[in-house]
């Protein structure tokens, strides 16, 4: 929890920049440079603080020129098929020509969604609850030691 709170402002800023890039392109599709600047700043924040961006965000950013990839506006989306029937969605950046291909597999599970990845996140609440339990165990002892008369009176009654 402490780690998430530490980078909360950075995530909020990245979120703002990502939405601002969308807003710029929706108002004026020709203003690609400003949207690219926003996304470049967003990527710089993520790199400096080593923050992982969600795959849904990461897939809409160009790897090479870090411009926002919107199909039909700043990128082209095509379906490609190889000889062994595997289908790909190929997104090509219209600014620099860099293309990224994503495998069409509805059964594909991202690493974030796998149960193995969830284990690391589950450890943190357990540690927090164990540390929370320790003060709870010590607190009654302190109150009893500081106020022996009150504890004795409550125990007798
Ligand atoms: Zn590009």
TrEMBL record:
<feature type="region of interest" description="Disordered">
    <location>
        <begin position="119"/>
        <end position="157"/>
    </location>
</feature>
<dbReference type="GO" id="GO:0005655">
    <property type="term" value="C:nucleolar ribonuclease P complex"/>
</dbReference>
<dbReference type="GO" id="GO:0046872">
    <property type="term" value="F:metal ion binding"/>
</dbReference>
<keyword id="KW-0479">Metal-binding</keyword>
<feature type="compositionally biased region" description="Low complexity">
    <location>
        <begin position="145"/>
        <end position="157"/>
    </location>
</feature>
<feature type="compositionally biased region" description="Polar residues">
    <location>
        <begin position="119"/>
        <end position="133"/>
    </location>
</feature>
<keyword id="KW-0862">Zinc</keyword>
<dbReference type="GO" id="GO:0008033">
    <property type="term" value="P:tRNA processing"/>
</dbReference>
<dbReference type="Pfam" id="PF04032">
    <property type="entry name" value="Rpr2"/>
</dbReference>
<keyword id="KW-0819">tRNA processing</keyword>
<comment type="similarity">
    <text>Belongs to the eukaryotic/archaeal RNase P protein component 4 family.</text>
</comment>
<feature type="compositionally biased region" description="Basic and acidic residues">
    <location>
        <begin position="134"/>
        <end position="144"/>
    </location>
</feature>
<protein>
    <submittedName>
        <fullName>Uncharacterized protein</fullName>
    </submittedName>
</protein>
<dbReference type="InterPro" id="IPR007175">
    <property type="entry name" value="Rpr2/Snm1/Rpp21"/>
</dbReference>
């Amino acid at each position: 929890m402490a780690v998430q709170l530490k980078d909360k402002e950075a995530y909020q800023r990245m979120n703002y920049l990502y939405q601002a890039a969308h807003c710029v392109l929706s108002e004026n599709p020709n203003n690609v440079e400003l949207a690219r600047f926003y996304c470049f700043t967003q990527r710089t924040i993520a790199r400096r603080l080593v923050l992982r961006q969600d795959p849904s965000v990461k897939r809409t950013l160009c790897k090479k020129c870090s411009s926002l990839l919107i199909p039909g506006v700043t990128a082209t989306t095509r379906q490609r098929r190889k000889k062994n029937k595997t289908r790909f969605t190929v997104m090509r950046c219209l600014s620099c020509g860099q293309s990224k291909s994503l495998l069409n597999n509805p059964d594909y599970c991202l690493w974030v969604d796998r149960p193995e990845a969830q284990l690391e996140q589950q450890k943190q609440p357990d540690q927090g609850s164990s540390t929370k339990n320790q003060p709870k165990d010590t607190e009654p002892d302190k109150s009893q030691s500081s106020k022996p008369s009150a504890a004795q009176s409550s125990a007798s009654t």
